[in-house]
Design goal:
By secondary structure, this protein is of the alpha/beta class. Helix content is 45%, strand content 14%. It contains six helices and five strands; from the N terminus they run βαβααβααβαβ. Helix 6 links the parallel strand 4 and strand 5.
Length: 142
């Protein structure tokens, strides 16, 4: 049996703008608890994961960061349509005068979120600019 759309668990992609602020104490870790209620869950996607791991300084730190912060998350994979969605998001930004308002990594993360009907949890205005031109994109600033 398939659950009605509004009763399905919602994945929440927690952007690196939030993870990095949690690590330095600017955002409390408990701020994410509300996104795991009612079957909802925290998730990751390849562009976000690669962006986070890119900032590590050694193979040991890479392994530690992955095992501690990423291994436990569900991964939302891009689909064949993700390319078209990300290009369309950038097109909308440009045509609305928001030239370079969102970087390519954030645009790809938004496209993956749209594909999975996920919510991006962030502290990054790029996602707010994307939401201004893409009502189908769900995001929340913490």
């Amino acid at each position: 049996m398939t659950l009605p759309f509004d009763e399905r668990p919602v994945p929440h992609i927690v952007d690196n703008s939030v993870w990095s602020r949690i690590q330095i104490g600017q955002i409390r870790g408990t701020a994410l608890e509300s996104f795991t209620v009612g079957g909802n869950f925290l998730a990751a996607c390849a562009p976000q994961l690669l962006e986070a791991l890119y900032s590590t300084r050694s193979p040991r730190e890479w392994e530690s960061e992955y095992a501690t912060n990423w291994e436990f998350l569900d991964v939302l994979h891009p689909g064949v349509e993700t390319h078209a969605v990300s290009v369309e998001l950038q097109r909308r930004l440009w045509h609305s005068g928001k030239v370079r308002a969102a970087g390519p990594v954030d645009t790809m993360i938004a496209a993956i979120a749209i594909r999975h009907d996920a919510v991006v949890v962030h502290r990054d205005s790029d996602y707010e600019r994307i939401a201004e031109v893409a009502p189908e994109f769900r995001q929340v600033r913490v």
